[in-house]
Design goal:
By secondary structure, the chain is an alpha/beta fold. The protein contains 30 helices and five strands. It has a five-stranded mixed β-sheet.
C-alpha cells in the first residue's frame, strides 16, 4: 500500500466522512484520548505498556481509545518517525476537533531495580472534584509490572459507567526484563506503523511481512503465553476494517492458520484472538477452522469453546451454537460463563434443532412439551452456574423467573422459595429482587414469598427498594392499602430520582388499579395519530401533577395537544417534561422535532446533541440528527449519523420515517 489513495482510509481513530466533529460523535460513549507514556530512559517499554493497555480498555464495547502516540506537522510522505515524536507531554498537545471525554497519560521510571508506572486520568464525565485520578504501580521487574496490566485496566475502567464483562484472562509471565522489553517495543512499533498509515504514510507489503516475521520471533521470546498473547493482540487489532487496506494484505500473509503455526502448540492465545479477529473481519470459514482445530486438540480450554459459541451466535447458526455448548459440557470443561450463556440462549428459543438435552433426562419428563423441556434445561444450566459461582445474581434471578413461570407442584414451590431466600441474602441493591416480584403474579401462592421479603425488610429499615418490592407484591395480592403504606414509607427513605419516579407510578396504580391499562389505551390512540377524549386529556394532566417524573404522561399529552392543533401547548408540555427529565431519550427526540418544526433549529440541534451524549445508542435521536443535517445541506455528516443508526437498529420506525423523508426530498430535487 503506497499511502496515496486517501479514499481507502476511513480512520480507526476518527471514523470516516468529511465532517470530522460529527463523525467523532458517532463513536462510543467513552472516548479516551491516550497520550504517550513518557520515560527518559525506557521510552519504547513505556509506549509498549500503553499499547497493551489500549487493547485491554477496548474490550468494553462502550470504550474507544484514540491513540495519540505521536505528534508532527510534517508532510506524511516525507515524514520519518522517531521515538522523540512519541514522548510529548499533555502540555505539548492541543486537542483540535477531538471529541474525547477523558484523557490518559503516564510516566515510567526505573530507580535501582524498581520500576514505577504512574498513570493519570482526567475524566470529563464526572464531577470536577472527582475528575482527576492518579495510580502508581511498582514492581521489581518488568514481569511484575506487566502482570498488573489487568488491574491497571480495571482501575481505569472503574471510573466509568460500563457493563461488567468476563474477558479471556491475561497470561502472567516470569520472563526476564530484556525479553519483555523487546516484546513491548515490538507491539508498539507495529501499532505505530498502523497510525502512520492513518496519517497518510504508506506501508509496503514487503515491510508488513518483515515486521510480521519479527513479531513471530518476539511472540516466542518469553517462553510462555505472554509473548504470544501480546503479539496476537497487536495483529488481531490490525484486522479492523478502519485500517483498510492493510488488513486485506495481512489476511493473505497469515493465511488460514499460518499465524498460529509460528507459536508453540501449547500456546492457545493466537488461535483464540486471531480466530475471533478473522471472523470480525468477515473471514468466517478460516475463523471457524481455527476454532474447530483448537477445540479438538485442546478440548479442556473453556475460553476456546466460549469464543467458538460466540461466533456461531453472531452468525445466526443455532444448531451449531447449541452443539458447541453441549460438547463443552460433555467434555466437563464448561465454566460459569458458558453455563450462563447456554441458559440465556435456551430462554430465547422455542424449538431445539438438535433434539438433544445434556443437563436433564427427558425420560423424567414424559408429559412435557418441547418448550417445557427447554425451560427445564435452562433451569439446570443456571443451577450449574450457581454451583460454580454461588454469588452470580443474574443466574439466580433467571432461575427464579423460570421456576415461577413453570411451576411443578410442590417440588418447584420448595425450590423457588429456597432460591428466593438466597436472592434476598445476596442482593444488596434490590435490583434482582424487584425483577422477580414484578412477574410474581404468575405464582398461585404468593404468601410465602411475601412473608420472606417482609421479614428481610425488617432487618434493613433504611432500604427503600425493599419497601417498593413489598408494595408490588401487595398489589399482586390486591391489598392496595398495604401497598400504599409501603410506598409512603419508601418515599420517606430516599431522594433517588429513579426510585421516586417508580414510587409515583406505583402510587397511581394503587389509587387506580386500572391506571396502566388506561395509559396503554391512550397510547394506542395517540400513536395512531387519533384524538383522545377531553376526559383522557385531563387524565394525563392530572397524572403529571401527581407524578411529575412519569415520562409517558408528557409524551402522550404533548402529542395529543399537537393532534388537537394546539402547537403552543404541545411545545410547552414537552419542554416541561424536558426540564423534569433532561436525559430521557424519547422526550429529547420529541422536543427536538417540535423545535425544528417551529424553526428553532439551534435549539433543536442543542437538544439532540445533549440527548445523544446521554443516550449514544438511541436510534431515533441518531436518525433525527441525520435528518436535520440533511436539511441543512450537510449530506456527508447526515450519512454518517444514519449509517450508525442503521448498524444499531435497521428496522427502527423513526429511522424508516427519516429514510422516506430523505428519499422523497431527493426525488423532488
Amino acid at each position: 500500500y503506497d499511502g496515496k489513495n486517501k479514499d481507502l482510509l476511513p480512520s480507526v481513530i476518527f471514523g470516516s466522512g468529511r465532517n470530522l466533529l460529527q463523525n467523532l460523535r458517532l463513536q462510543q460513549r467513552i472516548r479516551i484520548g491516550m497520550m504517550p507514556c513518557v520515560s527518559e530512559d525506557h521510552p519504547y517499554t513505556a509506549m509498549g505498556l500503553m499499547t497493551l493497555l489500549a487493547y485491554l480498555l477496548e474490550r468494553w464495547g462502550d470504550v474507544r481509545v484514540y491513540r495519540l502516540f505521536f505528534q508532527t506537522d510534517a508532510n506524511p510522505q516525507k515524514y520519518e518517525w522517531s521515538i522523540r515524536d512519541s514522548q510529548s507531554t499533555i502540555d505539548d498537545w492541543v486537542f483540535d476537533s477531538l471529541d474525547e471525554n477523558a484523557v490518559l497519560y503516564a510516566t515510567l521510571t526505573k530507580t535501582d531495580s524498581t520500576w514505577c508506572w504512574s498513570i493519570t486520568l482526567e475524566n470529563d464525565l464526572v464531577e470536577e472534584a472527582d475528575a482527576e485520578k492518579i495510580w502508581t504501580y511498582e514492581a521489581n521487574s518488568l514481569a511484575g509490572l506487566v502482570n498488573q496490566l489487568e488491574q491497571v485496566a480495571q482501575d481505569v475502567i472503574s471510573q466509568f459507567d460500563v457493563s461488567e464483562i468476563r474477558p479471556i484472562p491475561i497470561p502472567t509471565t516470569n520472563a526476564d526484563d530484556t525479553a519483555i522489553a523487546r516484546v513491548l517495543r515490538g507491539v508498539f512499533e507495529w501499532q505505530m506503523q498502523l497510525l502512520l498509515v492513518l496519517f497518510g504514510k504508506g506501508w509496503a507489503e514487503g515491510d508488513i511481512q518483515k515486521r510480521l516475521d519479527e513479531l513471530y520471533i518476539l511472540g516466542n521470546l518469553t517462553h510462555d503465553d505472554f509473548g504470544a498473547w501480546a503479539v496476537s493482540q497487536a495483529v488481531a487489532h490490525t484486522l479492523n476494517k478502519g485500517y483498510s487496506p492493510v488488513p486485506d494484505s495481512l489476511t493473505l500473509l497469515i493465511g488460514g492458520d499460518g499465524f498460529i503455526d509460528h507459536f508453540a502448540p501449547h500456546t492457545l492465545y493466537p488461535s483464540m484472538l486471531i480466530g475471533r479477529a478473522l471472523f470480525n473481519f468477515g473471514n468466517f470459514a478460516p475463523a471457524m477452522n481455527i476454532l474447530d482445530a483448537i477445540t479438538e486438540t485442546h478440548p479442556d480450554n473453556p475460553y476456546a469453546w466460549l469464543i467458538k459459541a460466540d461466533l456461531y451466535r453472531r452468525s445466526g447458526r443455532l444448531a451449531q451454537l447449541l452443539e458447541t455448548y453441549h460438547s463443552a459440557i460433555e467434555h466437563d470443561v464448561a465454566n460459569a460463563d458458558l453455563f450462563l450463556q447456554y441458559g440465556q440462549i435456551l430462554e430465547l428459543i422455542e424449538d431445539n434443532p438438535t433434539n438433544t438435552f445434556v443437563l436433564i433426562d427427558v425420560d423424567d419428563y414424559e408429559d412435557y412439551t418441547e418448550q417445557d423441556l427447554i425451560i427445564r434445561e435452562a433451569i439446570e444450566a443456571y443451577e450449574n452456574v450457581l454451583r460454580l459461582e454461588p454469588d452470580n445474581l443474574t443466574a439466580l434471578q433467571n432461575q427464579i423467573l423460570l421456576l415461577a413461570d413453570g411451576m411443578n407442584e410442590d417440588v418447584d414451590a420448595q425450590r423457588l422459595e429456597e432460591a428466593f431466600s438466597r436472592l434476598l441474602q445476596k442482593d444488596s441493591t434490590g435490583e434482582y429482587i424487584r425483577a422477580v416480584v414484578d412477574v410474581a403474579y404468575t405464582i398461585d401462592d404468593l404468601d410465602p414469598l411475601f412473608d420472606m421479603l417482609e421479614a428481610h425488610a425488617e432487618k434493613y429499615p433504611k432500604r427503600a427498594d425493599l419497601r417498593i418490592s413489598l408494595a408490588v407484591l401487595a398489589m399482586h395480592l390486591e391489598d392496595y392499602d398495604l401497598a400504599s403504606d409501603y410506598l409512603t414509607e419508601a418515599e420517606d427513605l430516599t431522594d433517588d430520582e429513579a426510585l421516586l419516579a417508580d414510587i409515583d407510578r406505583l402510587m397511581l396504580s394503587v389509587d387506580n388499579p386500572d391506571f396502566e391499562e388506561k395509559l396503554g389505551a391512550i397510547y394506542a390512540v395517540v400513536s395512531g395519530g387519533n384524538k383522545i377524549s377531553l376526559q383522557d386529556l385531563k387524565f394525563l394532566e392530572k397524572t403529571i401533577e401527581q407524578a411529575p417524573l412519569l415520562a409517558e404522561a408528557y409524551l402522550y399529552l404533548a402529542q395529543s395537544y399537537m393532534i388537537w392543533g394546539e402547537k403552543d401547548h404541545a411545545l410547552d408540555t414537552i419542554k416541561e417534561g424536558y426540564v423534569q427529565l433532561p436525559n430521557h431519550p424519547e422526550i429529547a427526540e420529541l422536543l427536538a422535532r417540535y423545535e425544528w418544526a417551529e424553526g428553532n433549529k439551534d435549539e433543536a440541534q442543542a437538544v439532540l446533541t445533549d440527548g445523544i451524549s446521554a443516550n449514544p445508542t438511541y436510534v431515533p435521536l441518531l436518525a433525527r440528527m441525520g435528518q436535520f443535517l440533511f436539511e441543512l445541506g450537510e449530506k456527508d455528516a447526515a450519512k454518517g449519523w444514519l449509517t450508525r443508526a442503521e448498524a444499531l437498529s435497521p428496522r427502527d420506525p423513526i429511522l424508516a420515517e427519516v429514510r422516506k423523508f430523505i428519499a422523497d426530498a431527493m426525488s423532488r430535487a
